[in-house]
Design a protein that fits this description.
InterPro entries: DUF2334, Glyco_hydro/deAcase_b/a-brl. By secondary structure, the chain is an alpha/beta fold. The chain contains twelve helices and 29 strands. The strands form eight sheets. Strands 2-1-3-4-11-10-9-6-7 form a nine-stranded mixed beta sheet, with helices on one face. Strands 12, 13, 16, 22 and 23 form a five-stranded parallel beta sheet that branches. A four-stranded mixed beta sheet has the order 24-25-26-29, covered by helices on one side.
């Protein structure tokens, strides 16, 4: 009887994964893979300001949340003999040009049967320590600007960065992708038995995307091979034009395209003294409600999207933009207060956010830990450090990491008002993302821009085969104070918490909202 119940549960789980468009393999009952990330640390601040802009150890540790992994991160100088024995996979990140590899670490890696992924410099030291590896180091080069992968060729030009060239000495070496200067050709990624080597130093471009795709081979995990994009209407504040919002909703509804409404509940302009919430603008609330009826899903985009002397929409909220450092606040109290105020205003107006998007994607590391308490889902880009404001675009959805329960990345950009970035750049980025078999990305659009741009973006992404994802038809939850909001794969939104004054109770059962997919509990 128990076996029958289990098989039925497993069958339903698989069917639900298919129906909800999950890109994740069913891992019910599987033990998470233990991963150790070791990175060099000669001078983190200088490395931040080099061409490798971000702390790759943070990017990688979060990115691996796309797979069924449990990740630990240590600096190279903290590594102790035998430490890798507790792990199945060891990533070594060497982003420096000088210094020798920690000899204790080097000997452990050279003699292990565990899977090793060597990313960056010092590969010649490993090849000397383990002469069985059939690769020959040919040096560093900045002239190898052509990258080939899956029959696609990209000319990186001045953005090629450094390649660490290795020559395979055996047919047993499996290669993924190639780098070339038009004459010589070397593998971008080489694999021999339990050793993997990534030659192209990159944390955001084409070579990084190839690496992100090949991680599926490294971990041996199957993910559904289609690309999803989340379309956001950005910075919907109390001062936005209701007419523009509704026209956008009508267009997307006519195309049967779901979208996200990045809502800022309150507007503040310290210079003019203007302070207004959506409660003061019933026509905006009506327009947002209209958008929801036409396939929109509300996401809380901060509370005021500003701090100190900044104007809403222009300023930061969870980062000190003037000093370029975390705010001088207790983030536990500050984040809770801002989120709670935002949720309360939304609730007052019959709106139910299902996720959070940090304003300008800026968030101190302590802030991420607080958001994780309240939101199942965060949208945007990853701020990798508290040393300065800088973000990274991840190539796919991640779950159960140090910073997030679930993270939906944005990497395509938006149409800039000054024309510095437009539709062509967005579609170019989307084309690169096709390198990743199960890419998840996002694009956003401001309602005051010409809607012709939006149509070009939508049609361009459709022609590439992207599927527009519906956040409301995914499992999300928001829990803070007395408020509990969640959505289901059927597109239902379920709310538990305080009633509005206008709501009534009949026979002890709370009346449902007009939305047939909405339920009060």
């Amino acid at each position: 009887m128990k076996r029958t119940a289990f098989l039925m549960f497993l069958f339903i789980t698989i069917i639900m994964a298919i129906l909800t468009g999950s890109s994740f393999a069913v891992t019910y009952g599987e033990t998470r893979k233990r991963v150790l990330v070791v990175y060099d640390n000669p001078n983190l601040l200088n490395r931040d300001y080099s061409g490798l802009a971000n702390d790759f150890s943070v990017i990688l540790s979060e990115q691996l949340g796309h797979f069924n992994t449990e990740v630990e991160v240590v600096m190279e100088n903290e590594y102790k003999e035998g430490m890798l024995e507790g792990y199945q996979y060891i990533f070594y990140l060497s982003l420096r040009e000088k210094y020798s590899v920690n000899q204790v670490l080097l000997q452990d890696i050279a003699n292990t049967a565990r899977t090793v992924i060597w990313y960056g410099g010092g590969i010649e030291e490993l090849l000397n320590a383990n002469k069985n590896i059939p690769l020959k180091f040919r040096g560093r080069s900045k002239t190898y600007h052509l990258v080939e992968y899956n029959k696609e060729t990209f000319n990186l030009g001045q953005n090629a960065g450094i390649n660490l060239l290795v020559e395979p000495l055996s047919e047993e070496v499996i290669t993924y992708g190639r780098v070339s200067d038009g004459k010589g050709v070397y593998p971008l990624i080489a694999n021999w038995k339990n050793y993997w080597f990534m030659s192209g130093l990159d944390t955001s471009g084409v070579k990084y995307l190839v690496f992100s795709d090949v991680l599926h081979e490294i971990f041996g995990e199957y993910h559904s091979e289609y690309r999803k994009v989340y379309l956001r209407i950005e910075d919907v504040s109390p001062l936005r034009s209701p007419k523009n919002l509704m026209e956008i909703a009508d267009y997307l509804y006519s195309k049967k395209i779901p979208f996200i409404i990045a809502l800022i509940p309150a507007y503040i302009n310290p210079e003019t003294g203007v302070e207004v919430s959506i409660t003061d603008k019933p026509e905006v609330v009506k327009a947002v409600g209209y958008m929801v009826e036409r396939g929109g899903t509300v996401v809380l985009h901060g509370y005021t999207h500003q701090h100190y002397k900044e104007e809403t929409g222009e300023g930061f909220e969870f980062w000190d933009a003037f000093e370029d450092r975390p705010l001088n606040v207790n983030y536990a109290d500050y984040v809770r207060e801002r989120v709670l105020k935002g949720i309360e205003i939304c609730r007052e107006n019959g709106l139910y956010p299902l996720a959070f998007e940090p304003p300008h994607y800026a968030m101190a590391q302590d802030g991420y830990r607080e958001l994780k308490k309240y939101f199942s889902t965060v949208i945007g880009q990853l701020q990798t450090t508290d040393r300065r404001f800088i973000t990274a675009s991840l190539p796919y959805e991640i779950r159960n990491t140090k910073r997030f329960n679930r993270f939906l990345p944005e990497s395509l950009g938006y149409v800039a008002e000054d024309g510095s970035f437009g539709v062509n750049e967005i579609l170019k980025n989307a084309g690169k993302m096709l390198l990743v078999r199960d890419a998840v990305t996002g694009v956003f659009f401001h309602s005051f821009m010409d809607k012709a741009y939006l149509k070009q973006i939508v049609e361009g992404l459709e022609s590439m085969g992207y599927v527009f994802a519906d956040l409301e038809k995914e499992d999300n939850w928001v829990k803070i104070g007395d408020y509990n909001i969640r959505s289901t794969a059927k597109g239902d939104i379920i709310y538990e918490g305080p009633l509005l004054k206008k709501e009534k109770i009949k026979s002890g059962i709370k009346e449902e909202e007009k939305n047939p997919h909405f339920t009060e509990v």
